[in-house]
TrEMBL record:
Keywords: DNA-binding, Transcription, Transcription regulation. Residues 1-20 are annotated as: Disordered. One of its GO terms (molecular function) is transcription cis-regulatory region binding. Coiled coil: none annotated. This is TetR/AcrR family transcriptional regulator. Residues 42-61 bind DNA. Residues 1-13 have a biased composition (Polar residues). Residues 19-79 form the HTH tetR-type domain. SUPFAM superfamilies: Homeodomain-like (SSF46689).
Length: 215
């Protein structure tokens, strides 16, 4: 046991170095995607931006496709079941809706990395194998999001006639608003979209006179 504990301690600095290097590579790739698009994010350019050799980069990510897949996971991680966008279920419906929209926007859809991810999504269409893997990841993330969304907002599952469709719509609104950030969007327009989503969530989770989910 002592030997094992010593080995774990001995591995820690190496693990930290690996994580630090990978973080630099990921940040460099995201910066290139934001500033120059998919074509600019070559392995050589990413290595230069991360201040590592091309060989070191390929030691951590054997190919450009492998790195791009990691970027998809990186951008979408906050949407996972244990991600950072989900508010306390004990909050009242309106407060929960406001917290969710704010957290989702600040942590994912309004973040610069999300716009970088769209450059990658469009760019990797030319690589069918990579695009298929990215799409498979999207399907998984969407499924997790819909399930978690309805868990956090059980009122929608109880009172809306198409709860799964509403969850998909909420995701589509956030995603579409995020994509528009590629252009010049005024604060009033942006906030109006987010406020409208909050109102839609509250309305979807509120029993309607004369009917509910069965209406």
């Amino acid at each position: 046991m002592t030997t094992s504990a010593t080995q774990r301690r001995a591995r820690t600095p190496q693990t930290e170095r690996v994580e630090t290097t990978q973080r630099k590579i990921i940040d460099s790739a995201l910066a290139l995607l934001r500033e120059g698009g998919f074509k600019s994010a070559t392995l050589q350019a990413i290595a230069r931006g991360a201040d590592v050799s091309l060989g070191a980069l390929q030691h951590h990510f054997e190919s450009r496709d492998a790195l791009m897949e990691r970027l998809v996971i990186e951008v979408m991680e906050p949407l996972s079941d244990q991600g950072t966008v989900w508010p306390d279920k004990a909050l009242p419906l309106r407060e929960r809706a406001e917290a969710f929209v704010t957290l989702a926007w600040d942590n994912i859809f309004g973040a610069a990395n999300y716009q970088a991810a769209w450059s990658m999504f469009f760019g990797c269409k030319a690589s069918p194998s990579l695009f298929d893997r990215v799409d498979a990841r999207r399907v998984h993330v969407d499924s997790v999001f819909y399930t978690r969304f309805l868990d956090v907002f059980p009122e929608i599952a109880a009172h809306h006639p198409r709860p799964q469709g509403f969850a998909a719509m909420a995701f589509a609104i956030l995603r579409g608003t995020g994509v528009l950030e590629l252009f010049e969007v005024g604060e009033q327009e942006r906030q109006g979209s987010l406020d409208a989503l909050v109102e839609a969530i509250v309305q979807a989770g509120t029993p309607q006179a004369g009917g509910g989910a069965a209406a």
